[in-house]
Structures are given as structure tokens and as C-alpha cells.
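quick one, 122 residues, struct below
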Amino acid sequence: MLTAVDHVQLAAPPGAEEALRAYYAGVLGMTEIPKPPVLARRGGCWFSAGAVQLHLGIDPDFRPAKKAHPGLRVTDIEAYATRLAARGAPVTWDTELPGHRRFYSEDPVGNRLEFLEPAPGV
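---
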């Protein structure tokens, strides 16, 4: 029986770790968590925020995910969108999910990310 999602992994091109750290830690406010040494040799980086973990793995044949994406629940979605836009990240609002406010953005290597918050009163 499944009990939880442990993490979501996204791909990134070789050499992207510093840009990923600046975005996921600096912009999104996540904490970088150490990779086990045997996995650290592969490159990439891991991040967490509470129970949420995102792993960024290096793929020599990288292509950004344009449809597949993690859905990240946030609080104060307006402030989050403003924060991303102020740092140059695209913010595309979408009103089609009933009971939620949400927008899409991209990380520095082009992976699609969804940010959502339940609408007030839901």
C-alpha cells in the first residue's frame, strides 16, 4: 500500500547546480539537503521544505519538462508570485482549477512548476 510521495525528481543539465541552488534555496526558500556520498558523485542537488522534497538529478541528455510538473502548495500565493516575478521567473496564472488559485512558472533550466493554494473558504 502506498503511504506517501517521498520525493519528486526533476532533471537538469550538467553544470546547473549553482543556478538550481540560487533558485530552489534562494528564491523558493527551500533548504538544500545533503545527498548520500555515493549519489553525490552523480551531481545534482536535493532540497526540502517541511515534508516536501525535490531532487534535481543531472541528465547529460537534458530536456526540460514542459508538461509534467510537481504541484507545490504554498501560502500567500500572491506574495509568492510577486517574489518569483521580481527575480525574473515567469508567472502564468491559471483559473481553471476549481477551489484553488494557481500559477505556473519555470525553474532556471526550464522545468515547469505549478504553485497552488486553496481559495479562501475552501
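The chain has a mean pLDDT of 94.
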